[in-house]
């Protein structure tokens, strides 16, 4: 199928609600968008597809008045307009669920939903009762079972995301934008989100949906638009295109989506964890891990996988349990000690826990390896650059230079820097927590390739992932966690999608999943 | 060639020192070939005065006459000044002996010590509790006067000093300290504040507490600042020497020393219209007796200083 | 029940009550209503400025220039009084002048994006310097002020001086501002997550500007009250008071990182400090001990507050909950 | 995997070009301008002895500023430094009255500084309390202990050889304090810019969570920084006590804000994450030159502080205003 290069459509379709044309936007040193076009139609879901750093989030920010375009036209229902502030965009009927959760931990759920446009009562003061009432009905509408008076800080990450969705819907909008809305949601919530999207479609809203997951794009999108390196590549109807063609447009070449084939060469047992427990977060975790093995950890969001991994890495202290490396008992009280023992952890929350924004790429990469790139505590710049160059290039990092601030990279490229940082330490056990979350398809393959290579070199790899194909495709063995406990350990033929979902959701055998 | 004499005060802006500067200018006019540099830090710290002294040394002034915030801390800097040929004297609040050629007390310390307790006692024929509100705890002259006062307490039976507090020569702190005194000692009969800042603040605090007339505020103050409180009855009487005279005398002594006069124990130095000052073994001398102000004469002097 | 106990305000109120009981043990006269009223009156400027500082801190800023602002407006008030300007005009004048100085801080933070601590460190010295320039360093003493000028904060009404009533009125005003207006809620949003505030259409800079202007206006009003109350104006009045104000906020549970705090907390924090300051000399503790004791009190209070405020964390394990 | 990697250059801008456009260069121009203005304004300025005296206006504060700069870069602050000076000086006085000689006095001064730093460091780094508030508390606590010990008394009569630190000369007009200042400038410059410890300081200032997740012992680094700051306050206490020849509890009042001003003027981001030691060194000279130059004209200290305040805001604001104008044009 040949995609329509112009995005123009047969007249059978209604006119677009929103049309962008000739939009360009530059940041110091980066041209994020050049002369791109985008059209959204009422009652249809348009998927915006592109690699990390293609400019997807940038266009969202332009549409919501957070960035101003350098050039180009925004038309709503055929009338040219511009959005100097976020409020102007909301007034014009554009609302968005942003890629980062943009909420306030110390305000209540209701206040988070209505901040900036709270219902007013007497003397123009905020009408709290009315605000709670409206919040309750909004939450009910998206099927979220939340008390609007709860402080946001007390909610889990998935619930927070639901609040963000409720907030977007609290604005009466014609255009709803969702920037990777399912990245932080678990199975059940994702399905509820799909239903919500269907309902919004039925209400005649125009939806812009950004995702790296092709299965969901094909499931809910009606149309697509592809960007590559800030350029408009094509647009058209989903029905007229295949996955392979989309990927081709996206990366400019064909990508082998098959997980790397490998014949695991298992060495001796490297790591043994016995009875690891935490007073409130997880209990009684037992497993052992061999050299050259990839161990998957599956579970729903909030199952406690990250909490356990962070305890293993010395961030939090367990209350009970022992950890042995090479059959020697080790006590890990800090991250420094974990690194000394060869255990490293690639965190899930790269913005907060991974990248050090404000410092250049090379300094990020060499941070845990400073002992190797320095002599007697004195730094050696040339060695730092050499080390950083080696690992970032292998991960196909897109950056202007190694001296560039990490904060200026796109989300996916930041993740690559964080992974490079840990690989450069030559660890023995590497824990990857959602390593491909928010990473585009090309880089994803590179990360998978790399994981296989690491295992081949005799490293022990732990991979926490919520993506079933990834877990099944990469792991030699899978541990499933639910509510802080190990509920299943699967190997070989027992590793099926059904088994994973059943164990993770706590559905006993025999009941339909 | 004109002589440049620096009058260094504890802090700029205090009425007492402004008046002293007026006196120094008067001396300059009388002597003819003198330029007065009136300077000081803006808060009452020794470090601030040292920076001022360093700047004066750099300018090569002929003489420095200082009222010190700390007798010891400024001494090394002043010693350096003397090493570079600058005449150094202290006045009002003194400097350690090796940091100056002589020190001019406004009055003799025993006289002042006796005066402040006498002012309180004269209005308390039946005796009673009195408290002292001082300036900073490091203030040399305050401490000397209070020590002298304690020496003569035996002459005033029935009067007991129940406490000493420090207002740091800050109006608001002094005010709060005075309030604290009234709360702590319900039978308090008088507050002695041998500081021009403290006495005004204490009088205001007593007035605000509705105790004007019951608690007598006395000590050392400026007539212009105290006139209102004398009228309201918060203060029955207070004493002070004339700061204009003091500035005048300090400037004249500095001039004479830098023109060849010598400061030696037992010797005298001329102070122009104020007569001669006689130095003791510590090379200190007293200018004049303190003068008492009350309702009968305060208005007359309020317009002068 | 546990909620009530856990709330920092209730806890702080308890500590204050305990403090009063301990003082009463040594010196019963301190807890008489008349004396407590006078302590409250003494603490009024601290209460007003702690509230003002609170909203600034809520927006992730800090205003170190409040005391200098107070001193400058106080001096201007005294000078205007000396020129015979009527009191009503002086009152309007000080609030406007204070707000203008707050606006200078706010504009530098908003338009030039200079960190607030740097801006106000600079303006703190500049405002103090300006007092010296306009007053020539001279003091304005009680006898140079008109009786009407000095009287306002002292007028008693229902047994409390006007200064206390003003503090009470301002406390109520802040309660409404912070709890019930869009601006008040946006202070929390801006401080809690400035990044997210942008996405919700709140102008971070402008909200911070508003906080500075309000704080400045409060400092201006307090400037008049201070000068009229103590009947003196000079360069150094309220020197170092900005640190007391910040300490009051922090003791009251206002998070220095922004986004967290309450009117009740700030007021209680100010009262705690005020009672400490007033009580120490009264119970006969040597003046030389005062500084160390209040320092220790601040550290303990902060440590305590932090322990209280520490998030309990999520609890994944069902039976542990 | 494809062997042909996309090549990422190390740098696009050379470090030298970066330095030319840096804050430090701007500040250096300001310093030179102030120097020239001073020379033109006062005939007494260009005199070796006078310039030597002028260094006392900043040396002690600058010693603390080096450590404070690192602390601020790491995202913390210590407002208790002036109070540490007071306590260290008081302790030296106590040791002196017990009859100890100069070497012991110096050790006591440095030791007290270290102890105070350890106290701050423990509370901030181990208990995780906000340093700005904790050190407002310890500021009262440390100075309060001085008041408890000294009351309205003073310690005087330090041994004659003790005066060497604050009043001595190494050669000609070069004072002991100036040499100590220079040595510390180099030491801190190397520590911050050339060692892995210094790198960790920057990392913590930019993102303490990521630093912990990268194996950096955040609490330890912060603790060491507080220790260093306390130590430097101890060094300053030795110098200042020696220079004044006496100890009062009110010694060094208000130094903390001048130190912070110096650090910020030196281009250190008060929010942490960036700044350099050379910047702080230049800022120290700028502040010393301004106060001394204006002092020669007998300008009152408070008016000088207006200049410092304007300088502080102006040096940050002007380039930004300039950039805004250019963007609009
Ligand atoms: N504020 C900014 N300053 C500088 N560069 C930026 C900024 N925001 C985005 N960029 C750059 O613009 C480009 C597009 O980024 P954008 O976030 O839009 O990518 P994306 O398509 O959303 O990627 P991802 O899938 O990783 O989220 C990237 O090269 C990024 O580095
Ligand atoms: N309410 C919350 N408050 C703060 N942090 C949270 C909250 N909920 C989740 N997180 C953080 O988000 C991440 C999610 O971890 P969580 O334990 O909930 O899930 P998980 O089972 O580890 O799996 P996943 O990696 O899929 O999220 C963790 O880093 C956790 O610390
Ligand atoms: Mg994006
Ligand atoms: Mg997780």
UniProtKB/TrEMBL annotation, chain A:
Keywords: ATP-binding, Cell membrane, Membrane, Nucleotide-binding, Repeat, Sugar transport, Translocase, Transport. It is found in: Cell membrane. InterPro entries: AAA+_ATPase, ABC_carbohydrate_import_ATPase, ABC_transporter-like_ATP-bd, ABC_transporter-like_CS, P-loop_NTPase. Residues 18-254, 264-508 form the ABC transporter domain. The keyword Repeat applies. The keyword Transport applies. The lineage of its organism: Bacteria, Pseudomonadati, Pseudomonadota, Alphaproteobacteria, Rhodobacterales. This is Sugar ABC transporter ATP-binding protein. GO terms for molecular function: ATP binding; ATP hydrolysis activity. One of its GO terms (cellular component) is plasma membrane. It is a peripheral membrane protein. Pfam families: ABC_tran. Coiled coil: none annotated. Its main location: membrane.
TrEMBL record, chain C:
One of its GO terms (cellular component) is plasma membrane. The keyword Transmembrane helix applies. Its main location: membrane. GO terms for molecular function: transmembrane transporter activity. Keywords: Cell membrane, Membrane, Transmembrane, Transmembrane helix. It comes from the Bacteria. The chain crosses the membrane at residues 46-72, 84-108, 114-134, 155-178, 209-231, 243-276, 288-306. It is found in: Cell membrane. Pfam families: BPD_transp_2 (PF02653). This is ABC transporter permease. It comes from Fertoeibacter niger.
From TrEMBL, chain D:
One of its GO terms (molecular function) is transmembrane transporter activity. InterPro entries: ABC_transp_permease. The keyword Disulfide bond does not apply. Its main location: membrane. One of its GO terms (cellular component) is plasma membrane. The chain crosses the membrane at residues 26-46, 66-88, 100-120, 127-149, 169-192, 223-245, 251-272, 279-296, 302-323. Part of the ABC transporter complex LsrABCD involved in autoinducer 2 (AI-2) import. Probably responsible for the translocation of the substrate across the membrane. It is a multi-pass membrane protein. This is Autoinducer 2 import system permease protein LsrD. It is found in: Cell membrane.
């Amino acid at each position: 199928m040949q995609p329509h290069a112009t995005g123009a459509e047969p007249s059978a379709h209604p006119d677009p609600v929103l049309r962008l044309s000739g939009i360009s936007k530059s940041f110091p040193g980066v041209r994020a968008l050049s002369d791109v076009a985008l059209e959204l139609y009422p009652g249809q879901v348009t998927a915006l597809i592109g690699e990390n750093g293609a400019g997807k989030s940038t266009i969202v920010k332009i549409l919501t008045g957070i960035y101003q375009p350098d050039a180009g036209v925004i038309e709503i229902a055929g009338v040219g307009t511009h959005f100097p502030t976020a409020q102007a965009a909301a007034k014009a009927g554009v609302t968005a669920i942003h890629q980062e959760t943009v909420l306030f931990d110390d305000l209540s759920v209701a206040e988070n939903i209505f901040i900036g446009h709270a219902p007013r009562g007497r003397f123009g003061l905020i009408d709290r009762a009315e605000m709670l009432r409206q919040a309750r009905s909004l939450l009910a509408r998206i099927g979220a079972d939340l008390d609007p008076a709860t402080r946001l800080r007390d909610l889990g990450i998935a619930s927070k995301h639901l609040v963000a969705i409720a907030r977007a819907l609290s604005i009466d909008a014609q255009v709803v934008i969702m920037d990777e809305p399912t990245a932080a949601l678990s199975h059940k919530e994702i399905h509820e989100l799909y239903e919500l999207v269907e309902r919004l479609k039925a209400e005649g809203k125009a939806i812009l949906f950004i995702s790296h997951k092709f299965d969901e794009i094909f499931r809910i999108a009606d149309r697509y638009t592809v960007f590559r390196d800030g350029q408009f590549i094509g647009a058209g109807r989903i029905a007229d295109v295949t996955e392979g063609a989309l990927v081709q447009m996206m990366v400019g070449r064909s990508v082998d989506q098959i997980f790397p084939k490998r014949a695991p060469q298992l060495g001796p047992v490297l790591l043994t964890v016995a009875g690891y427990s935490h007073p409130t977060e997880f209990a009684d975790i037992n497993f052992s891990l061999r050299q050259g093995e990839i161990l998957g950890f599956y579970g729903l969001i909030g199952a406690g996988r990250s909490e356990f991994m962070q305890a293993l890495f010395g961030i939090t202290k367990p209350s009970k349990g022992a950890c042995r490396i090479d059959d020697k008992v080790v006590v890990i009280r800090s991250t420094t000690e974990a690194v000394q023992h060869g255990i490293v952890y690639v965190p899930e929350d790269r913005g907060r826990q991974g990248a050090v924004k404000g410092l250049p790429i090379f300094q990020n990469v060499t941070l845990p390896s400073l002992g190797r790139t320095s002599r007697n505590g004195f730094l050696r710049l040339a060695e730092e650059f050499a080390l950083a160059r080696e690992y970032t290039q292998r991960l196909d990092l897109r950056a202007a230079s190694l001296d560039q601030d990490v904060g200026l990279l796109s989300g996916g490229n930041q993740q690559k820097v964080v992974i490079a940082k840990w690989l450069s330490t030559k660890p023995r056990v590497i824990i990857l927590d959602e390593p491909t979350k928010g990473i585009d398809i090309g880089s994803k393959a590179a990360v998978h390739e790399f994981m296989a290579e690491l295992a081949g070199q005799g490293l022990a790899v732990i991979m926490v992932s919520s993506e079933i194909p990834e877990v099944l495709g990469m792991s030699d063995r899978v541990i499933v966690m639910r509510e802080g406990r190990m509920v299943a350990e699967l190997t070989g033929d027992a590793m099926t999608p059904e088994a994973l979902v059943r164990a993770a959701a706590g559905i006993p055998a025999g009941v339909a999943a | 060639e004109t002589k440049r004499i620096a009058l260094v005060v504890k802090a700029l802006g205090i009425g007492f020192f402004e008046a002293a500067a007026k006196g120094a200018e008067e001396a300059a006019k009388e002597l003819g070939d003198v330029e007065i540099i009136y300077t000081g830090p803006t808060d009452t710290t020794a470090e601030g005065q040292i920076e001022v002294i360093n700047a004066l040394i750099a300018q090569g002034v002929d003489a420095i006459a200082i009222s010190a915030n700390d007798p010891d801390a400024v001494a090394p800097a002043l010693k350096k000044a003397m090493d570079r040929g600058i005449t150094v004297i202290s006045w009002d609040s003194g400097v350690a002996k090796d940091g100056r050629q002589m020190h001019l007390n406004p009055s003799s310390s025993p006289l002042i010590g006796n005066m402040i307790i006498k002012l309180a006692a004269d209005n308390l024929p039946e005796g009673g509790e009195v408290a002292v509100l001082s300036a900073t705890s490091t203030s040399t002259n305050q401490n000397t006067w209070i020590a002298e006062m304690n020496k003569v307490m035996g002459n005033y039976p029935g009067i007991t000093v129940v406490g000493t507090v420090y207002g740091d020569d800050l109006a608001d702190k002094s005010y709060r300290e005075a309030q604290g005194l009234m709360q702590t000692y319900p039978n308090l009969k008088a507050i002695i504040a041998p500081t021009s800042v403290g006495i005004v603040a204490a009088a205001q605090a007593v007035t605000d507490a509705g105790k004007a007339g019951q608690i007598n505020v006395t000590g050392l103050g400026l007539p212009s600042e105290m006139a209102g409180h004398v009228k309201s009855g918060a203060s029955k009487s207070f004493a002070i020497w004339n700061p204009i005279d003091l500035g005048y005398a300090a400037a004249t002594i500095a001039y004479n020393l830098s023109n060849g006069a010598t400061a030696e124990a037992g010797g005298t130095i001329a102070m122009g219209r104020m007569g001669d000052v006689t130095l003791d073994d510590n090379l200190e001398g007293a200018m004049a007796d303190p003068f008492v102000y009350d309702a009968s004469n305060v208005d007359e002097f309020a317009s002068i200083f | 029940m546990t909620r009530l106990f856990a709330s920092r305000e209730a806890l702080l109120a308890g500590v204050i009550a305990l403090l009063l009981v301990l003082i009463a043990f040594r010196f019963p006269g301190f807890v008489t209503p008349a004396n407590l009223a006078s302590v409250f009156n003494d603490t009024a400027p601290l209460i007003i400025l702690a509230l003002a500082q609170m909203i600034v801190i809520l927006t992730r800023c800090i205003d170190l220039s409040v005391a200098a602002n107070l001193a400058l407006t106080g001096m201007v008030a005294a000078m205007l009084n000396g020129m015979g300007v009527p009191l009503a005009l002086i009152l309007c004048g000080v609030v406007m002048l204070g707000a203008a100085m707050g606006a200078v801080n706010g504009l530098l933070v908003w338009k030039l994006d200079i960190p607030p601590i740097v801006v106000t460190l600079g303006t703190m010295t500049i405002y103090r310097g300006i007092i010296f320039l306009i007053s020539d360093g001279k003091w304005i003493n009680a006898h140079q002020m008109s009786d009407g000028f000095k009287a306002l904060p002292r007028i008693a009404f229902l047994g409390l001086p006007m200064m206390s009533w003003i503090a009470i009125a301002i406390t109520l005003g802040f309660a409404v501002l912070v709890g019930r207006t869009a601006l008040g809620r946006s202070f929390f949003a801006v401080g809690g997550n400035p990044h997210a505030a942008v996405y919700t259409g709140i102008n971070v800079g402008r909200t911070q500007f508003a906080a500075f202007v309000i704080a400045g206006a409060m400092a201006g009003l307090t400037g008049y009250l201070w000068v009229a109350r103590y009947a003196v104006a000079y360069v150094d009045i309220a020197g170092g008071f900005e640190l007391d104000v910040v300490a009051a906020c922090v003791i009251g549970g206002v998070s220095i990182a922004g986004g967290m705090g309450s009117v009740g907390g700030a007021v209680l924090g100010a009262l705690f400090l005020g009672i400490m300051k007033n009580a120490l000399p009264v119970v006969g503790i040597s003046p030389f001990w005062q500084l160390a004791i209040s320092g220790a009190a601040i550290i303990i209070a902060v440590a305590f507050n932090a322990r209280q405020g520490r998030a309990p964390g999520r609890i994944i394990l069902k039976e542990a909950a | 995997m494809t062997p042909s990697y996309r090549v990422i250059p190390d740098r696009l801008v050379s470090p030298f070009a970066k330095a030319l456009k840096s804050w430090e260069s701007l500040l250096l121009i300001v310093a030179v301008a102030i120097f020239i203005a001073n020379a033109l304004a006062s005939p007494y300025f260009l005199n070796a002895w006078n310039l030597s005296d002028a260094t006392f206006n900043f040396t002690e504060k600058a010693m603390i500023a080096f450590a404070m700069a690192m602390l601020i870069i790491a995202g913390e602050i210590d407002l208790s430094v002036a109070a540490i000076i007071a306590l260290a000086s008081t302790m030296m006085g106590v040791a002196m009255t017990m009859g100890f000689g100069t070497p012991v006095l110096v050790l006591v001064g440095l030791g007290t500084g270290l102890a105070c730093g350890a106290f701050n460091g423990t509370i901030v780094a181990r208990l995780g309390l906000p340093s700005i508030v904790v050190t407002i508390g310890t500021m009262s606590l440390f100075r309060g202990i001085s008041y408890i010990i000294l009351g309205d008394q003073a310690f005087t009569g330090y041994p004659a050889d003790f005066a060497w630190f604050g009043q001595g000369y190494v050669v000609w007009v070069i004072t002991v304090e100036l040499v100590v200042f220079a040595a510390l400038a180099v030491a801190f410059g190397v520590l911050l810019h050339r060692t892995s410890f210094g790198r960790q300081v920057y990392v913590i200032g930019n993102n303490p969570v990521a630093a912990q997740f990268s194996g950096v012992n955040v609490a330890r680094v912060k603790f060491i920084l507080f220790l260093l700051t306390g130590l430097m306050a101890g060094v300053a206490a030795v110098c200042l006590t020696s220079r004044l020849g006496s100890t009062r509890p009110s010694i060094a009042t208000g130094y903390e804000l001048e130190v912070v001003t110096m650090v910020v003027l030196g281009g250190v981001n008060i929010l942490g994450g960036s700044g350099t030691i050379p910047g702080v060194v230049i800022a120290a000279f700028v502040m010393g030159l301004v106060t001394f130059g204006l002092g020669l004209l007998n300008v009152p200290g408070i008016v000088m502080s207006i200049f410092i305040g304007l300088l502080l805001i102006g040096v940050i604001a002007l380039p930004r205003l300039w950039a805004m104008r250019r963007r609009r044009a």
